[in-house]
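Here comes just one.
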Amino acid sequence: MVGLAYSLAMIRTAGGVLVGLSAGAWLLMTVASAQSPAAARSIRDGLFTEAQAARGRLAYEKGCAECHMADLSGHEYAGSLAGFGFQLKWQDASLGELFGRIRSMPLGRPGSMSSQEYLDILAYMLAKNTYPAGANELTAAVASQRWPRIPIERVIMESAR
């Protein structure tokens, strides 16, 4: 009889732990989804403004065009930053991965630009790859995330239109 009582107590305890773990997991998922509505965002949501992309063009010309060319087409040693070649290289990469790479430039002088200039250059690159502008400027908090991913698709470069 003692063994049966002990077994029932263990089942109740194990059940309580299981219910507690299940409730804890549900609560954690609910809080996480409520705290990160941005996780559902897309690169097509307009993550930068037109004004920011215009500033990015100027920063790009100052720090990037020498290697990646004025039209972002790149060459054999400095890859394309716009068009299908860019999207093939960065397909399904996160914005954070791309932003990290941008901040490691220019070659031989990483970090020589301000944080805002790097964000503006990323906005310019997104604009040149036909991603839409939005109402808010791209911030370091957004640019450093593992989302949104960069989808692979054929794009028409603005200069080719």
Remarks:
- The CA atoms of residues 96 and 144 lie 4 Å apart.
- The chain has two domains: 2-35, 39-160.
